[in-house]
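dumping this here so i dont lose it
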């Protein structure tokens, strides 16, 4: 009999909250985390807005010495992982740590440290570059640091699939537990890329919103007047367990993960494949693995970046999979309030999807004002709605043609 895999804990650091409860409550109320950039002076940049994490104090949470040796994305990861452990009431001393995995990814890794230390070298010489540059910038360091912090001695690695990274980490951790390689895992993504070079780079490829005058409305997924995504930062982390392992320790089970689909467009480095066919295949694979009918999906947390092409083609892909039922499914993009967390987007949105099951309420797509004839589904505009669904889907799509779909269900014995 195939193992059942469950979620028992959630950790989240986001632009709209410093834990999952605060973040989800803000999402439900359409509270935006987007504002004019405060962490540096954006005057000379074409884009001056982002979704920054406010009020996060790494020294208080990690200690002065350790926090200075962690890039911000690793700081987020460690704190969110500790939250997931606490939320899941996991006593690490009571488990087999050799079967405790950490699968935690990042899209760009320690770009803040790399950017800062390049300036040091240019202005003060190579001898002044920090000896911690390399271990701080490596994308696997969030996963490595979390493993060390928790004493998790099982498999430990960092998937990188651009904006699908966090979702793929959850999916691959699930498959690993099914294979018996691990009993439980910390899985998700972490990102901290709000810096001048990242803003300039995304702006140059015409991916970012230029709505500098009204930052809160910069991210407007599926709206006719959308003009790009807003860069965000943070982490989303899940504690995932084999059902029997969770039962033996008396864990509170939040949801069951029943489907994971991952595909490639094999088409273009930034544009979706025609008609969103790659995303359609990922959803179909997840539905097939879940052994459910498409009509059983009662909510979709869409990738919904607020870019003209993504939202159009994601809409097409949902229609391809769900046919007439597509018009009946509540769909929302929480990026309308959090911005786009890149490698952490999929895991934060997976966490939100689980919270939909727990709270029986669907967060809205904020800033939805003008309908787009090519985006004509139910995007839950501007106000949350109640739901009684027991099955939800979370989609993540990334540069490079990565497509990932996760399906969660209310747990029943």
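and the seq i came up w/
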């Amino acid at each position: 009999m195939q193992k059942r895999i469950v979620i028992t804990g959630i950790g989240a650091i986001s632009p709209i909250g410093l834990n999952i409860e605060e973040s989800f409550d803000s999402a439900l109320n359409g509270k935006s985390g987007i504002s004019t950039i405060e962490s540096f002076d954006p005057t000379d940049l074409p884009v001056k807005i982002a979704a920054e994490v406010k009020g996060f104090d790494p020294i208080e949470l990690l200690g002065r010495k350790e926090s200075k040796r962690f890039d911000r994305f690793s700081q987020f990861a460690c704190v969110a992982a500790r939250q997931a452990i606490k939320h899941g009431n996991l006593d690490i001393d009571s488990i087999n740590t050799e079967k405790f995995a950490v699968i935690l990814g990042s899209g760009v890794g320690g770009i803040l440290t790399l950017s800062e230390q390049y300036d040091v070298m240019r202005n003060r010489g190579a001898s002044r570059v920090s000896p911690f540059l390399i271990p701080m910038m490596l994308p696997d360091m969030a996963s490595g640091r979390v493993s060390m912090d928790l004493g998790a001695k099982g498999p430990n690695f960092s998937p990188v699939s651009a904006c699908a990274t966090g979702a793929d980490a959850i999916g691959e951790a699930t498959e690993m537990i099914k294979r018996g390689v691990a009993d439980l895992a910390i899985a998700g993504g972490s990102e901290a890329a709000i810096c001048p070079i990242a803003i300039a780079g995304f702006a140059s490829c015409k991916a970012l919103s230029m709505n500098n005058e009204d930052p809160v409305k910069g991210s407007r997924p599926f709206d006719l007047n959308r003009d790009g995504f807003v860069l965000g930062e943070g982490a989303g982390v899940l504690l995932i367990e084999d059902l029997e392992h969770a039962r033996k320790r008396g864990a509170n089970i939040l949801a069951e993960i029943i489907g994971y689909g991952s595909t490639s467009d094999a088409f273009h480095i930034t544009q979706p494949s025609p008609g969103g066919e790659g995303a359609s295949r990922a959803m179909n694979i997840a539905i097939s693995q879940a052994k459910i009918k498409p009509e059983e999906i009662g909510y979709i947390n869409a990738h919904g970046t607020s870019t003209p092409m993504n939202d159009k083609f994601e809409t097409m892909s949902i229609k391809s999979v769900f046919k007439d039922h597509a018009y009946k499914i509540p769909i929302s993009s929480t990026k309308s309030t959090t911005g786009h967390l890149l490698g952490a987007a999929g895991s934060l949105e997976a966490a939100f999807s689980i919270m939909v099951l727990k709270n029986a309420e669907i967060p809205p797509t904020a800033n939805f004002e003008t309908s787009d004839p090519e985006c004509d589904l139910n995007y839950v505009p501007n106000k949350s709605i109640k739901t009684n669904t027991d099955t939800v889907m979370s989609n993540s799509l990334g540069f490079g043609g990565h497509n990932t779909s996760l399906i969660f269900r209310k747990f029943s014995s």
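The first strand starts at residue 5 and ends at 13.
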